[in-house]
Design goal:
The protein is an alpha/beta fold. The chain has a single domain (about 10-270), classed as Phosphoenolpyruvate-binding domains (TIM Barrel, Alpha-Beta Barrel), CATH 3.20.20. The protein is about 40% helix and about 15% strand. The chain has ten helices and ten strands. The strands form two sheets. An eight-stranded parallel β-barrel has the order 1-2-3-6-7-8-9-10, surrounded by seven helices. The protein has a two-stranded antiparallel sheet with strand order 4-5. Helix 8 links the parallel strand 9 (about 205-210) and strand 10 (about 240-245). Helix 8 crosses helix 10. The two termini are about 25 Å apart.
């Protein structure tokens, strides 16, 4: 049965719950458009195997599923999650030595996107682009250049001229609500999310809304009513993609979560308000 056509895309994080080829195939068949690999976890051998499986299965289905390599950036890992490590020693920008090694791997794997964690300003994007160009991932003469997704998860990156400069420097933007919620009051997140989406729309850049969109489906076969509304309104506000993290990487129902997210997107797009969509 062909996948229904939708404009907004689904980004799904691949992890232990979704690494099996049969599960990956079902996720693609049920609406996964883009695969995210979180480089805070896993070995290069594991990531390479998942990339190979995704590309092989997508090709067998007559589809193209781009790979997002999500760099760790400086972070403190805790039992309850992680947060930005403002004391970490980095290179000239927010890139860490681990990020640079991971970029070597990403270049060898020809990943389509690199997501940069904890972007502070446009200079961070410029530094990453130079590192990618040095590895042949973008720049002059590269026929299929990898693109940069700026993750907006620091208060300083989420407002005013600095946000506009970051959006202008990047190829796409992610509203990374998890870490953003560590820096701003939680009640501000919906409005900051909308500001980021509007900034991306002004610049005609794709924007992804991410984090805890359908978190209850880590352990439940159905989402909460609030989660359904969250996904729908992210699309109504203009998100070009919505993202699954733990739900598809670690949850019990990765296929069902993707299928439900697709239903919500299709219903949101069926209604009269249809924002301009910029494909990843």
């Amino acid at each position: 049965m062909p996948t229904p056509h939708k404009r907004a895309q689904i980004v799904a994080t691949i992890g232990p719950a979704s690494k099996d080829p049969a599960v990956l195939k079902a996720m693609i068949e049920n609406g996964m458009d883009v695969a995210r690999l979180n480089f805070s976890w896993g070995t290069y051998e594991e990531h390479a195997a998942r990339i190979a499986d995704i590309r092989r299965i997508a090709e067998s289905l007559g589809k193209h599923v781009p790979i997002i390599q999500d760099l760790s950036g400086p972070r403190i890992q805790e039992k309850s999650g992680h947060e930005f490590d403002s004391t970490a020693r980095t290179t000239d920008s927010i890139l860490t030595s681990k990020d640079l090694k991971d970029l070597d791997f990403g270049a060898a794997q020809n990943v389509e996107y690199v997501a940069m964690s904890y972007v502070g300003d446009a200079r961070d994007i410029e530094r990453l682009r130079k590192e990618m160009a040095a590895r042949g991932m973008c720049g002059n003469g590269v026929s299929n250049p990898a693109k940069i997704i700026a993750k907006i998860e620091r208060a300083k990156a989420a407002t005013g001229d600095n946000l506009d400069a970051i959006v202008a420097a990047a190829d796409a933007v992610m509203v990374a609500r998890g870490d953003l919620g560590n820096e701003i009051p939680l009640e501000h997140i919906p409005y900051v999310q909308l500001d980021i989406i509007k900034a991306a729309k002004r610049a005609k850049k794709p924007v992804i809304t991410a984090t805890q969109m359908m978190l209850s489906m880590v352990s439940s076969a159905t989402p909460t009513r609030a989660e359904v509304s969250d996904v729908a309104f992210a699309v109504i506000e203009g998100s070009d993609a919505v993202m699954l993290s733990e739900e598809s990487a670690q949850g019990k129902y990765p296929v069902e979560t993707v299928a439900m997210m697709q239903k919500i997107i299709l219903e949101a797009e069926r209604h009269e308000y249809k924002p301009v969509i910029h494909s990843l």
